Fold this protein.
Amino acid sequence: MASSTNKSVIYIFRALLTVAIIGYLGFAVYNNATNANAVKPFKLGLDLAGGSHLVYEADASNVPAEDIPELMNVLKDVIERRVNIFGVSEPIVQVESSSFVSEEPRQRLVVELPGVTDVAQAISEIGKTPLLEFKLLDLELASQQDTLRSLQSLATSSGAQIGAVKINGEEISEDVDPFVDTGLTGRYLKSASLEFAGGQSGQLANEPLVAVQFSNEGAELFADITRQNVGQQLGIFLDGELLSAPVINEPILGGTAVISGGFTPDEARALAQNLSFGALPLPITLESTQTIGPSLGAEILDKGITAGTYGIAIVILFMIAWYRLPGLVAGIALISYVIIMLAAFQYIPVTLTAAGLAGFVISLGMAVDANVLVFERMKEELQAGKGTREAAQIGFARAWSAIRDGNVTSILSAIILFWFGTSLVKGFALVFGLGVVVSMISALIVTRTILIALPDQDVKRSKVARFLYGNGLSR
């Protein structure tokens, strides 16, 4: 008898402690949600907070396929640095690739800027991120281009027309670029800084220059290029525009190059900053823009909260109506589930989007499925003459395998959706998967702890107990 009383006290203490922890966590969530200066506020996605959604497409046609993932990650880091400079709140930069069934895979960069609702402002926040390239001048191609331009000039001055121009049997096209790629681009750039020339090497005294320092890999490539092409011109291009084409007098082994282009000090300083924080490894073009106003985002959020509130209320009412006292305990567990999920949104933190909000609302109904399995098992044990406390313990033990298998399959589905889905699907998958994990915690800890802490009753001897632990329309 004493042992049974001691166990009851322990069970009650555990239940009170669980309720106290959930209550404290709920207070913290409420305080953070209502405090404008909260340390851990909710992070709302672009579709809820409003802002600009920009999609850029990267040109990877001249890059080996095995290098594309690495270059896209570098591009992502560069754009993130560029956006962060301007203080945009919680920017999101993501890399997206077209479907693997596509014949020509396309590489996209998605940039989300919450709070920036002016598309023009959003584009200016990213700024003109320069593409830096080093190309060698092909003397033969340059000579052919000079010959073609001379013939065209003569023909224009005389009013005559010329047909196709051929040299050594090959037709010359005016669209041919006389500069040849070396593979040395901003991908290998380590830093850039403003300097002033000392008047040597044909440069004007105090002329603003931009000195660039390459990474170790870039320094080796630059040394090889200059070593193998002494006496040739190395063109320095910024966004496809030729800035300068100095002659390589000797191998350059220090990994440093100088860019001169008649800059003013302010232009050179801006260029150095742009190169340091945003020299792109791949050229990008703006593919699409989208703006979501704060009023529309607030409306979506309000409707999501309303749907969630109704969902919780309906689920709790159904559980109480069908399972009575255990259903009430399941309702308490569902409220704890909501509190834990909201705390996760704040403290992990999870960026909550409209798709994630939908996943949260859907998961409300699934959050009690483990309770349903347990209660049905309990019903069988109660009919066999077990007490309510023993029936609850056996019910949880026997329902565990079904709960585990069902939740594991749901978690695997969420992982697959998150791994292969777009950013919209990932928001849903993340909240859904997190909800499955939290629902197991609420069912196996909160529901079990409170149910076992309730006074042990014999439903066959007590009409009140039979009613409270009955189910459906039965008494």
The chain has a mean pLDDT of 78. Residues 139-177 form one domain.
